[in-house]
Amino acid sequence: MRTMIGMRTAAVLASMAGAVAGLAGGAFGQEALTLGQQAAGTLDGKTNAVYTVELDADTFVAGYADQKTVDVVVWIKDGDGANVGRFDEPARGPERFSFTTDRAGTYTVEVEAFEGATGDYGLVLTHAEPVATEPEARVDQLFVHYDNDTTPGAVVAVYRDGEPVFTRAYGIADLSHAVPWSAETVTNIGSTSKQFTAFAVCLLEQQGELSLDDDVREHLPELPDFGTPITLRHMLTHTTGYREFLNLLSMGGRQLGQGDAITRDEILAIVQQQPELQNQPGEEWNYNNTSFALLTLVVERVTGTPFEEWMQDHVFAPLGMDHTWARANRGTVLPGVARGYAVGEGGVYLEAMDLGGSMGAGGIYTTVGDLGRWIENLQTGNLGGAEVIEAMTTPHVLNNGKPTGYGLGLFIDDMNGHTRWRHGGADTAHRSQLMVFPEFGGAVVTQSNNSAFNGGLAEQVARLFFPQLAPEDSAPETEAAENDNATPEPNVGGVGVESYDALVGRYEFEAMPGFVLEITRNGDVLYGQATGQPRLSLAAQPDGRFQVAGEPIYLEFLLEDDGTCPALMLHQNGEHQANRVEDVWEPTADDLEAYAGRYFCEELETFYTLEVRDGTLTIVHRRFELELRPGQEHEFAGGFPIAEVEFEVDDDGRPVTLLASSGRTRGVRFERVE
Q1: φ and ψ at 472, to 5 degrees?
Q2: What CATH class has 1-131?
Q3: Distance (Å, rounded) from C-alpha 9 to C-alpha 16?
Q4: pTM of the prediction?
């Protein structure tokens, strides 16, 4: 276990020379990179800066672009000009990149200004060393971007048969006081907390205090009657039809990332003001924090004890989780907590406040050691018994008989044919991944206080320590796949490069009209760009799907026998179909002016003013502005905090109602008032 951060730096720098065979000059406009020395320049928005380096095969390479006054994209290309990786994450600060070489030769690092911007940058190659062959050393390379004394860091732990086999910490847990991460660091695990809430409710059912099939109004009678029972089981399986409170409050102008407060009383009020359900209970899976926050109130009503105290007495203490708390108030002082950080203007790290009102949906703070004890109980059922664990890890089935891939507080899927129980978490800046492989007793946990942390690293670590998880025909591992973007290998999974043109196009999601995913191609690389989001590359997988930017998000193209692709399926917290759309509505200036006006939402108690600015319809709110892009007629795509806007018109064709949607919250009505 690491006790000092950055202790490897001198040794790594000393070993780099052996991995770099030489530095090359190259063609006009290219410049050689010198290991450990910063190159610098100014981008004019038209021409990329190109640097070259000669590398041996099986070399691990890492570095960063210092985005001084311009947002950049970093491209890595091999000697044939093929893309090895594309990196485009934060708009300021270090744009970090890493990759491994599969052959010797000249590689180029290209620095491109994002969307034609101009400004100054720096570029540093920090690592060039042989790819590690031992899992522990390879993990050090995977986590290299978090392994210094100026960066919010991370911790990783691997378990086999309930025993820790590897634990290592990187970077800083508290930048203000230069406190390094360690295995004992307490951190916010975000939505990974949901399995604990589910476990609590299941324990109470086992004790005869409630039933998962109880109507929630038996315990919270102040909730509205929507004409059909909403059970505790619906709440635990994300099938209620309630609005998602974080999305909804953001649509109302709440700056959650800036620390705006939320209480459970307000979450109750949100449901009380909801005019109708978004779907009938059990009809649709829609990931929902509202239900899990309300379940803490159910536990309190049934037990007569504050949720955080009940969890301490009946879950954490019995399991020996002595450094774990459910935090009801984010102001509560907890010992040894990792503070969360995000990159702000000027590239400096800013401390990010945790979300309010998150207990139940999130709000648990713990260590990787305590999570090891929790994982052991998931595998043994010593507390709660096998029946509770089986209930939590059995996929829920919708009313139509279709399984959701989610049990009670846990996702259930497989990795290379092996059953996996998992959940990730993300608070404002904290990041978490927990995955368990019950068939062979393996488990991996990653935690971070860095908002830019790569969630895909947990899968990479799992494959290193459990070889049965690595597909036999998998391509050589690259950090591009683990970081932001990756180059798909051709002819993998039955979708070869020669078929990529059939996949290119625009796909609109059935559940969110106007929310479009555009698939584009650049050579042998496919990219996806969702409405209001950055463009990310897609890495082909052996099962025929494409992984999005190294995250546990996958696209499946639904091909016809004739090779055409009318639809795709997004696998992210469930399955979401998007259908190909060919025509885009092109409104005239008069068309846009017809939507201008002021709209009021009684549910949110919020006004939107719509204005046409430089030919673009724009939502103006006192706390945000959002440009809208036309989709189909009367439909517009936005971004954060409103992904899609649809207008209803009267008999004269005049827009009278604005329906705002944002992922988990849909169809929020704003009536025109002027």
Answers
A1: -60, -35
A2: mainly beta
A3: 11
A4: 0.85
Report which residue type is found at 569: M
DSSP string, 87-152: E---SSEEEEEEEE-SS-EEEEEEEEEGGG--EEEEEEEEEEEEPP-SHHHHHHHHTGGG-STTSB
Interval 205-224 mean pLDDT: 98
User: What is the DSSP secondary structure assignment for residue 497, as one 8-state letter?
Assistant: G
Cis omega (within 30 of 0) for bond into 403: no
**According to the model, what pLDDT value does residue 55 have?**
95
In the DSSP assignment, the letter for residue 313 is: I
The β-bridge relationship of strands 535-540 and 546-548 is antiparallel
Question: Angle at the Cα of 152 (from 147 to 153), degrees rounded to 5?
Answer: 45
pLDDT tens-digit map of 254-312: 998 888 889 999 999 999 999 999 999 999 999 999 999 999 999 999 999 999 999 99
What class has domain 589-672?
A: mainly beta
Distance CA 263, CA 483 (A): 35
Residues of the chain with CATH 2.40.128.50: 488-581, 589-672
Phi, psi of 461 (to 5 degrees): -65, -40
Locus of tokens 């994209």:
73
Indicate the helix (H) or strand (E) that contains 635: strand 635-637
Cα gap 491→468, rounded to integer Å: 23
The single-letter code of the amino acid at 100 is T
Q: Compute the CA torsion angle 364, 369, 370, 374 (nearest 10 deg).
A: 110
Q: Which of 30, 26, 50, 175 is nearest to 121 (CA)?
A: 50
66 to 105, 111, 124, 306, 415: CA distances (angstroms): 26, 11, 8, 48, 36
Cβ atoms of 107 and 488 closer than 8 Å:
no
- Scanning the structure block, which residue is given the tokens 């800013």? 350
Give the residue among 621, 607, 622 at the shortest CA–CA distance from 658. Answer: 607
pLDDT at 573: 65
Tokens of 551: 């995250």
Query: Three-state DSSP class for 182?
Result: coil
- The CATH architecture one would assign to domain 488-581 is Beta Barrel (2.40)
What's the gap between Cα 330 and its chain centre? 22
The SS3 call for residue 445 is: strand
Q: 639: pLDDT confidence band, cut at 50, 70 and 90? A: confident
**Nearest-angstrom CA–CA distance, 271 and 613:** 35
Say which amino acid occupies 175: L
Nearest to 520 by CA among 495, 538, 494, 532: 538
